[in-house]
Amino acid sequence: MNEKASVSKELNAKHTKVLEGLSKLPENRECADCQSKAPRWASINLGIFICLQCSGIHRSLGVHISKVRSTTLDTWLPEQVAFMQSISNKKSNSYWEAELPPNFDRNPIEKFIHSKYVDKKWASKTTVQPMPVVGQKGYSPERSVGVSRSGIPKKARKYSLEEEAFSNSMPHIASTTRARGGSLDLMNDNILAPPKATISEQSTSRKSIDTATDLFSLLYVSDAQQDRSVVPPSRWATFD
């Protein structure tokens, strides 16, 4: 998906106002290369405002050197506006023209621009070239309503903040859930086995069993004795 498609018309209009305000700052009122007034074009990877004539020359250098955008006609991403705000013509030229002799003749301008950015003829040897960074934080919300300091639209950032709050609350919920689970485990651990019989109960039960056994034994012995006893013949049976 094209990143520009995510920029609404309202946000793009705010970007245009921000860029217009940046181009009117003292350090950006002149073209970064030919020094003509009121530049309306920009190089988004160099962070400079340039005039229409110089923008054509920058295009001829290739996008690996300079990426040109119109401050009023093109759609800008929040991080691109942030980089333009963090840099300026003055700051950029402090690197690219660090060793440029005073009152140097910039004509022909095509040769000057090529020597400046391609050959790096006057670039600083002690400082690093200003480059766009991921998560650019130079984009001030005071100058652009609806955009956060990180260069992310506030509408989009709203969801990221809600997700962050949700993720922050998850450990608390998880700990509560674990605590409840522990209570269930404790309840399971606290389930007691059937109570053991006391000594008195055991003795009583043993006595009842012994009594029943003795009674059964007596009955069995009595029956056995009765079976084994011999009844003497009746005298009438032997009477002749």
Automatic annotation (TrEMBL):
Stretches assigned to the Arf-GAP domain: 16-130
Record's keyword terms, sorted: GTPase activation, Metal-binding, Zinc, Zinc-finger
Membrane spanning residue stretches: none
InterPro entries (UniProt xref): ARF_GAP_AGD5/15 (IPR044520), ARFGAP/RecO (IPR037278), ArfGAP_dom (IPR001164), ArfGAP_dom_sf (IPR038508)
Pfam families, alphabetized: ArfGap (PF01412)
Molecular function as annotated in GO: GTPase activator activity; zinc ion binding
Superkingdom of origin organism: Eukaryota
Protein name: Probable ADP-ribosylation factor GTPase-activating AGD15
Source organism of the structure: Olea europaea subsp. europaea
